[in-house]
Write a structure and sequence with these properties.
Layout: E1 2-6, H1 11-23, E2 28-33, E3 53-57, H2 63-70, E4 75-78, H3 85-90, H4 93-112, E5 117-123, H5 149-168, E6 172-177, E7 179-181, H6 190-199, E8 204-207, E9 216-218, H7 219-232, E10 238-241, H8 250-260, E11 268-271, H9 286-292, H10 300-313, H11 315-322, H12 326-334
Parallel strand pairs: 1-2, 1-4, 2-3, 4-5, 5-6, 6-10, 7-9, 8-11
Helix pairs in contact: 1-7, 2-4, 4-5, 6-8, 6-10
Bound molecules: nicotinamide-adenine-dinucleotide (NAD) and thymidine-5'-diphosphate.
Length: 336
């Protein structure tokens, strides 16, 4: 395969490239990434000299560049996005530009160049919010109800991807996954932010009452699911990927992290809630399990320990990220 990965310098994209080249060393990957605040080539240090890997610094909204790259590609795996809900609340513009327009540019190039597969990475957040303590889960037939600028832009992109299949017969697949965690995640997201604050002896900000629920997926399990969809998935189909079977609240996760890191609950700080905060996400991932034989390899506690360990052993990586514009964002979001 000759794969064009977009957003491969980000968290999930970089894990995916490393995973793929290890498992399929004969394949070639071109990584198109604009290197926004979230893109970090340090994530790819272990494979940067691999002759089957090439990095292209560029924007997915650049039609000419995307067309050129697509002409030499058979498969596209589209991760590039603005991905953080809190940033979309501060400024939605880059979310509309990259997530909606950028996806359209890629689809047009895929169509013109007769790409064999366009796989679109999306999120469970397109489905909106579930009630706390309900047994309901997002499933194959759940209607879209996005509630943040981030999730609305991802929902728009999903619809456009599906329309290109229906209208132009473009061979697409989509996956909507839950909250990922693991190595190389930018410390603006909940789990790495908590770990890095604890490492620095700072308090951990918990929004509202802390009783919000997410479905958590270890990034390696996510990469394996994408692999199966690319190899055996049905063209035109959407697969839901989640990591859990039982609910776990944000506050329980923070307490687990504090315990693993040998700290007490005094390090928790309840802060102002996020506007329009989705109460609960839970995914029914039985279809990908039944049809492609996927289920998570990691249980949550084991993956959390490995993630904490990774951040502890990669303090230079963390320090470099935090020396950039991170402090500015942190102060805007959390105050001094
Ligand atoms: P990330 O923010 O860590 O990385 C995004 C990458 O895209 C960065 O390398 C960035 O430089 C690049 N990028 C942004 N705009 C670009 C543009 N215009 N052109 C080219 N590159 C651009 O994101 P992530 O957490 O790795 O998420 C990857 C994908 O998975 C996204 O589509 C996201 O919506 C989806 N997703 C993420 C999660 C999660 O928990 N992280 C959950 C569900 C779905
Ligand atoms: P986040 O990692 O931003 O992912 P998403 O909003 O896309 O689900 O947040 C996960 C959960 O953690 C969400 O309920 C918001 C909450 N949260 C906090 O309580 N404090 C924080 O500092 C952050 C970043 C998130």
């Amino acid at each position: 395969m000759r794969i064009l990965v977009t957003g491969g310098a980000g968290f999930i994209g970089s894990n995916f490239i490393i995973y793929w080249l290890k498992k399929y060393p004969q394949d070639t990957i071109v990584n198109l990434d604009a290197l926004t605040y979230a893109g970090n080539l340090e994530n790819l240090k272990t494979i940067e000299k691999n002759p089957h890997y090439e990095f292209v610094h560029g924007n997915i909204c650049d039609t000419q560049l995307v067309n050129k790259l697509a002409s030499n590609t058979d498969t596209m795996v589209h991760f590039a996005a603005e991905s953080h809900v809190d940033r979309s609340i501060i400024d939605a513009a880059p979310f509309i530009k990259t997530n909606v327009e950028g996806t359209y540019v890629l689809l047009e190039a895929a169509r013109k160049n007769k790409i064999l597969r366009f796989h679109h990475i999306s999120t469970d957040e397109v489905f909106g919010a579930l009630k706390l303590d309900s047994k309901e889960k997002f499933g194959d037939h759940t209607p879209y109800n996005p509630r943040s600028p981030y999730s609305a832009s991802k929902a728009a992109s999903d619809h456009i991807v599906r329309a290109y299949h229906t209208t132009y017969n473009l061979p697409i697949t989509i996956s909507n996954c839950s909250n990922n965690f693991g190595p190389f995640q930018f410390p603006e997201k909940f789990i790495p932010l908590a770990i890095s604050n604890i490492i620095e002896g700072k308090k951990v900000p918990v929004y509202g009452d802390g009783l919000y629920v997410r479905d958590w997926l270890y990034v390696d399990d996510h990469c394996r699911a994408i692999d199966l969809i690319l190899q055996k998935g049905e063209v035109g189909k959407t697969y839901l990927i989640g990591g859990l079977t039982e609910d776990i609240s944000n506050i329980k996760i923070i307490k687990k992290i504090l315990r693993i890191m040998g700290k007490d609950d005094n390090q928790i700080e309840y802060v102002k809630d996020r506007p329009g905060h989705d109460r609960r996400y839970a995914i029914d991932w039985s279809t990908i399990h039944k049809e492609l034989g996927w289920s998570p390899n990691y249980n949550f506690d084991q993956a959390l320990e490995e993630t904490i360990d990774w951040y502890k052993h990669n303090s230079i990586w963390l320090k470099r990220i935090k020396s950039g514009t991170y402090t500015e964002y942190y102060q805007t979001q959390y105050g001094k």
